[in-house]
Amino acid sequence: MPSADELRTRIEEALPGADVNVIDTTGGGDHFRAEIVSERFDGLTRIQQHKLIYDVFGDEVGGAIHALSIKTETPTRAGDGR
Amino acid sequence: MTNDEIKGFIENAIKENRVMLFMKGTPQQPACGFSMRASGALNALGVKYAALDILPDPRIREELSGVSGWPTIPQLFVDGELVGGSDIVLEMFESGELAELLGVEQPDLGEEPAAEPEQPVQQRPIGLENRLN
Which residues lie below 8 Å from residue A34, measured CB to CB, with a gap of 6+? Predict the structure, then answer.
């Protein structure tokens, strides 16, 4: 069963330099919320940004990871304080 | 119904319905919180949309993800293009981008999304459920 820490580590490995925060929303090890700030998102649509994250986990999303809620931001936007 | 027929049905649904939501359950009875929030956002905007319940046959979800490249449910398509899943739909709803995309007025966000559709939802795509029997 994946843990929030494991998900965070895997996202950080896939997107070096990203600021990643993952929480287990139910405590059950299958519903997660991930917030990621990364320069890699620059110039990408939201769809493309979220796909980058889904791609880290492949078939596990919908399998062992029942739900993965994602919020992506670029460093510039995160710095706006919005 | 073969997988190819399901795929063809999905592609047609995306093409023929300007606002097409694939969800778990129905707008009247969502079967998952994420699907409920996505249909709730559309309901709050008062737009007409078609909705298809992916639960009756696991192949619907498989074929849909093959078509869209998107692994999770719900999935919202507007003008034939994938807009996103529940996170993106909610973000765009809250920012007013979704209202802009759909050409409607942004509702007063002090109110929770309405529980019931303000306009009748097109029924036909839900008929996929019956075609699978």
Answer: A7, A8, A11, A20, A21, A22, A53, A68, A69, A70, A71
| CB within 8 Å: B87 and A61 | no
- pTM listed for this prediction: 0.84
pLDDT tens-place string over residues A2-47 = 899 999 999 999 999 999 999 999 999 999 999 999 999 999 999 9
Check B71 against A50: CB less than 8 A apart: no
Report ipTM (2 d.p.).
0.82
- The sign of the dihedral angle between the CA atoms of B64, B69, B72, B76 is negative
* B72 contacts in chain A (CB < 8 Å): 54, 61-62, 67-68
Measured CA to CA in angstroms, residue A43 lies from A38, A46, A71, A72, B91 at distances of: 11, 10, 16, 12, 18
CB < 8 Å to B92, chain A: 46
